[in-house]
Write a structure and sequence with these properties.
With about 425 residues, this protein is α/β, with parallel strands linked by helices. The chain has 3 domains: about 190 residues, no CATH class; about 55 residues, Nuclear Transport Factor 2, Chain: A (Roll); about 140 residues. Helix content is about 40%, strand content about 15%. It has 16 helices and 11 strands. The chain has an 8-stranded mixed β-sheet. A hairpin with a 4-residue loop joins strand 7 and strand 8. Helix 1 crosses helix 7. The longest helix has 28 residues. The chain is globular. The N and C termini lie far apart (about 55 Å). The structure holds flavin-adenine dinucleotide. Keywords: Iron, Iron-sulfur, Metal-binding, Oxidoreductase. This is 4Fe-4S ferredoxin-type domain-containing protein. InterPro entries: 4Fe4S_Fe-S-bd, 4Fe4S_Fe_S_CS, Co_F420_Hydgase/DH_bsu_N, FRHB/FDHB/HCAR-like, FrhB_FdhB_C.
């Protein structure tokens, strides 16, 4: 019997589940087991769209359809939890298995805290994630830095710190992510700041880090993260779709070291990017200037996994004047007040902003400040967010003792 914390090398048994997958197909084999044995009603994951840059969310009901979903899409920047909330009734009456990067897993917890999704009906297969690249950025850097036609690329992968592309003629070209990022290219800015590389919030966490020697590229490293994860993993092995072996000691060490380095790099990038937007009123002025491009399309709100209010305050005329573009800054202030303590740095508000406003950078910067003040780390467990604990009178008193009860002045004054 497996238990939380156990680790395995795992791969799909080719006779029972003839799918290669990204690293041996363990994830697809587990999904197949779950669908065939009615452990879940459906699987929510992604498939390749028109080209390698597009990841399309897909709800799969039978294991025959899984072949089109296998493989990793590093330019696929969709976030799956909000889809469960918006289109699948929060998994209220449907059991769903879903593949989750760190940001997906954290968003899932935050939606569950707000009772917007039913975690009892969700099985999370975590994917370790070193980061993703936006489709636009991938196309631009392949043309400019790789000297290749982006339309000729048939496969992309991230391996040993390189973003590698393969053309239709079989040409491989890889450039180190560090080098790309030194030139302002590479992963999404929020991925560069991310500290959740192995999503242990999920039921199992799967990835290629720690798979060494002959098994590299053909096997997935699985960490069991919950009792639910242990039960499903054991049952999938017993059903014959999955083969396993013990991870090599050296592999365990390598995985630990890589995670450590990546987390440190995330923190370093936070410092770099947050420093660049200044502090106090300088930061406020910067945010106001950037936000002045806002066309109030609501893309940030629609896709934010924390936003769920039925009556959105940004639509109340006494708070934000209707028909005025850019909207009054109150629009942004409402978003900060509602989200900043729970921002999981998924990057969707920047990703989908047609005006290229780095919303996620601003929100994440505020979240980190709030974390320093209150110790709340969103998306890691089911601890309720800071604002749900704030006692109004106590908070007013605290602000009063600083000489001003204006939140604006307390947060932003030098
Ligand atoms: P498969 O059987 O091929 O199944 C993979 C599943 O993941 C499929 O269901 C597929 O639809 C789904 N999927 C693919 N792309 C996405 C996406 N963008 N969002 C959500 N679901 C998706 N492992 C590491 O150890 N280190 C890393 O740095 C790392 N970075 C990754 C970055 C990204 C963006 C992704 C998607 C994965 C990353 N992985 C990383 C995980 C690794 O690439 C493999 O997915 C993992 O080892 C499982 O391999 P498999 O053959 O068992 O999966």
């Amino acid at each position: 019997m497996s238990a939380k914390g156990d680790m395995y090398y795992a791969w799909a048994d080719q006779s029972a589940c003839p799918i290669k997958g990204e690293c041996g197909g363990a994830v697809t084999a587990i999904l197949k087991y779950m669908l065939d044995n009615k452990v879940v009603d459906a699987v929510l994951t992604v498939k390749k769209g028109r080209d390698v840059y597009e990841a399309v969310p897909v709800l799969v009901h039978s294991s025959e359809e899984l072949s089109k979903t296998a493989g990793s899409l590093h330019c696929g920047t969709v976030l799956l939890p909000k889809i469960i909330k918006k289109y699948l009734d929060g998994a209220r009456d449907m059991k769903i298995a879903v593949t989750c990067k760190g940001c997906d897993a954290k968003a899932m917890y935050e939606l569950a805290k707000r009772q917007q999704i039913n975690m009892d009906n969700i099985f999370m297969i975590g994917l370790n994630c070193g980061g993703s690249v936006t489709p636009m950025m991938a196309r631009n850097m392949i043309a400019e830095k790789y000297g290749l036609n982006p339309n000729d690329i048939v496969k992309e992968e991230i391996d040993k710190g390189q973003f590698i592309v393969i053309t239709k003629d079989g040409e491989h070209k890889g450039i180190s992510i560090d080098e790309l990022e030194e030139h302002g290219l590479g992963r999404r800015a929020n991925c560069q700041r991310c500290e959740t590389k192995i999503p242990r919030q999920a039921d199992i966490a799967c990835g290629n880090w720690g798979v060494i020697g002959e098994k590299a590229g053909k096997t997935t490293f699985v960490e069991i993260c919950s009792e639910k994860g242990a039960a499903v993993f054991d049952a999938a092995v017993k059903s014959g779709v999955l083969q396993t072996s013990a991870p090599e000691a050296k592999g365990l060490e390598v995985r630990g070291k890589i995670e450590n380095v990546m987390v440190k790099m995330g923190k370093k990038n936070q410092e770099k990017q947050f420093t660049a937007i200044g502090e106090g009123s300088t930061r406020l002025n910067y945010i106001m200037a950037e936000s002045s491009r806002c066309i109030k399309c609501y893309g940030c709100i629609e896709n934010c996994p924390i936003c769920y209010c039925v009556e959105c305050s940004t639509k109340k005329p006494h708070l934000v004047r209707p028909g005025v573009i850019p909207p009054d800054f109150m629009f942004q202030m409402i978003r900060f007040a509602h989200i900043a303590d729970s921002c999981v740095n998924c990057g969707q508000c920047s990703e989908l902003c047609p005006m290229n406003i780095p919303n996620s950078l601003f929100m994440h910067a505020q979240q980190v400040e709030l974390e320093k003040m209150f110790g709340h780390k969103p998306g890691y467990d089911m601890t309720m967010p800071v604002l749900s604990f704030a006692e109004e009178m106590e908070e007013r008193e605290r602000l009063h003792s600083t000489g001003s009860d204006m939140i604006f002045e307390n947060v932003f004054k030098e």
